[in-house]
Automatic annotation (TrEMBL):
UniProt-recorded name of the protein: GNAT family N-acetyltransferase
UniProt cross-references to PANTHER family, sorted A to Z: AMINOALKYLPHOSPHONATE N-ACETYLTRANSFERASE-RELATED, AMINOALKYLPHOSPHONATE N-ACETYLTRANSFERASE-RELATED-RELATED
Keyword terms of this UniProt record: Acyltransferase, Transferase
Organism superkingdom: Bacteria
Sequence ranges assigned to domain N-acetyltransferase in this UniProt record: 1-148
Originating organism: Salinimicrobium oceani
InterPro entries, per database record: Acyl_CoA_acyltransferase, Bact_Acetyltransf, GNAT_dom
SUPFAM superfamilies: Acyl-CoA N-acyltransferases (Nat)
Signal peptide per UniProt: none
Pfam families from the UniProt entry: Acetyltransf_1
Length: 148
C-alpha cells in the first residue's frame, strides 16, 4: 500500500471519480443531479490517492470552504478493495494535509443512503453538525465536522 498526494488532474483520480459518480447515480437515485452539481473538481487542488500493488484503489480530496475550513470531497474506494481500512487512511492523510495547509477543521457532507460512510466519519471523530451551505435544509444530507 502506498499513499500519494496529487492534484485533481491526476488520471488515476479521474478514473476513480468516474466510478464513484456511477455508483452515486444509483445510490442517490432521483436526487443525483442535485448532489452532482457540488462534486465538480474544478476547485479541487488537493487529492490523495491510495495504491495497492501500484493500482489506484481509493481517493479523497480537499477543497477550501473558508480560510479556516477544508471540505472533504470525493471519498471513494473501489468495491473490490473495501474492507481494508483504506478510506480511514485516506481521510487521515487528508486531515494531515489540511492541517499542513493551515486549516483548523474539516467538514463534509454525505447522504443518508451511505451508512458505511456515516460509520467511517463517526469512527474517525467527526461529529454531526447542522447542514452547511448548499446542503442547508436538505433532509437526505448529513453534514459532519472535525477539529484538527
Amino acid at each position: 500500500m502506498k499513499i500519494k498526494r496529487t492534484t485533481a488532474q491526476d488520471p488515476n483520480f479521474t478514473s476513480l471519480i468516474k466510478d464513484l459518480d456511477r455508483e452515486l447515480a444509483i445510490t442517490d437515485g432521483e436526487d443525483h443531479a442535485f448532489y452532482d452539481q457540488f462534486n465538480k473538481v474544478d476547485k479541487i487542488q488537493h487529492v490523495v490517492l491510495l495504491y495497492e500493488n501500484d493500482w489506484a484503489v481509493a481517493c479523497g480530496a480537499l477543497k477550501a470552504y473558508d480560510p479556516q475550513t477544508a471540505e472533504v470531497k470525493r471519498m471513494y474506494t473501489r468495491p473490490e478493495s473495501r474492507g481494508n481500512a483504506y478510506a480511514g487512511k485516506i481521510l487521515q492523510e487528508l486531515e494531515n494535509w489540511a492541517a499542513d495547509l493551515g486549516f483548523i477543521k474539516c467538514i463534509l457532507e454525505t447522504g443518508i443512503n451511505q451508512p458505511e460512510a456515516i460509520r467511517l466519519y463517526q469512527k474517525m471523530g467527526y461529529n454531526r453538525m447542522d447542514n452547511y451551505g448548499q446542503y442547508a435544509g436538505v433532509e437526505k444530507s448529513y453534514c459532519f465536522m472535525k477539529e484538527l
